Amino acid sequence: MVYKPKVLDLFCGIGGLSFGLTRAGLEPIGGVDNWEDAARTFEHNHAPLRCLIADISKLQVSDLFEFFGVLPEDVDVMVGGPPCQGFSTVGKRDSRDPRNRLWKHYLELVAQIRPAYVVVENVEGLVVMDRGNVCEQIVANFARIGYRAKWRLLRSADFGVPQLRKRVIFMASLAGLAEPSFPVPTIDEHVTVADAIGDLPSLRAGELAARYSSAPTTAFQRARRGPSRILKNHQAANHPPRFVEVLSHIPDGGNRKSIPGHLQPKSGFHNSYARLASNKPAVAVTSNMRKPSSARATHPTQHRGLTVREGLRLQTFDDSFEVLGSRTSQYLQVGNAVPPLLAEVIGRQVLDAYSANSKHSMRRVRSQPSAPIVFSAKHQLELQLLPPST
What we know:
Number of strands: 7
Distance between the termini: 56 Å
CATH architecture of the domain at 6-187 and 339-385: 3-Layer(aba) Sandwich
Number of helices: 13
CATH superfamily of the domain at 6-187 and 339-385: Vaccinia Virus protein VP39
CATH topology of the domain at 6-187 and 339-385: Rossmann fold
Shape: elongated
Order of helices and strands: EHEHEHEHEHHEEHHHHHHH
Strand content: 5-15%
Strand order of the largest sheet: 3-2-1-4-5-7-6
Largest sheet: 7 strands, mixed
Radius of gyration: 21 Å
């Protein structure tokens, strides 16, 4: 039997990373998150895996291994995306957001557990707002605890995900082990919004569909639908009639410029009241996907925001995946998720690197004591040191 490296998923959310890594041939042992709704969704869809609900800033290694019933040496790979909402390119940026400093706690756990490989996913804003060389600080701090780390900005659409959103990916390996490579684009043509959601039942504002009304027409649709017969999480927001009338004037891929003057909204961001283009990937899937007034989140042809199911499709979750919690919570869970298809191509690179090591070298490198984790004034991971956005 081929050994599957064991993965611990921190900041797991609903488990997009875990799903993709499983497809790649790795074996998650469970997740950790401090949001109960996301933890419930994780366990519902990843059974029998469990999710430990915990604040990572207060988490001890002993808590992890008591909950999951494993030892530090059983964890081959650690993955996760420490929140950096202060650096998101969506909404207000605040480099002083205390959640940004969760990186330090994450690295402290890595130093104590000493997995062979570490993968970290984060928002594009970490690079866009990198006036204080945040990414290089992170690489330097990985080096201080014995890891060779590197980072790259990957565009989801280049790996079969029907959205253009970019993600910062850090890949780290213990010094002395084979280093993983970054994945190269896997497709020649991007998957479009129509390719992804065109087979889902049409809905008016407020309507719900629990069954499919047509057969899938693209390879992407067939892959996501699989054997599913019941449609979950496909309910449209209940927009008022005047709002629907406003949307009815916007063409496929169009924007608020097409809205007649007497119906023009008096507020909103520059990309609000804009439709997704059916013949292109989505710009980004965010928690505002049901609110056309907040972002480019209007269905290409139907007069409404996206449903949770459409968001899941654009994030490459299979239709068998069900999100639990209130509607507002469901949208937030999906908007925060990592696309499983992106996680899968990253996981293959980790597996290739892991498999390139001999058992002897793996034992030797992992048995070495970790360097003490002391964050100097120069390299301390305090992301609030970056100047605020102007």
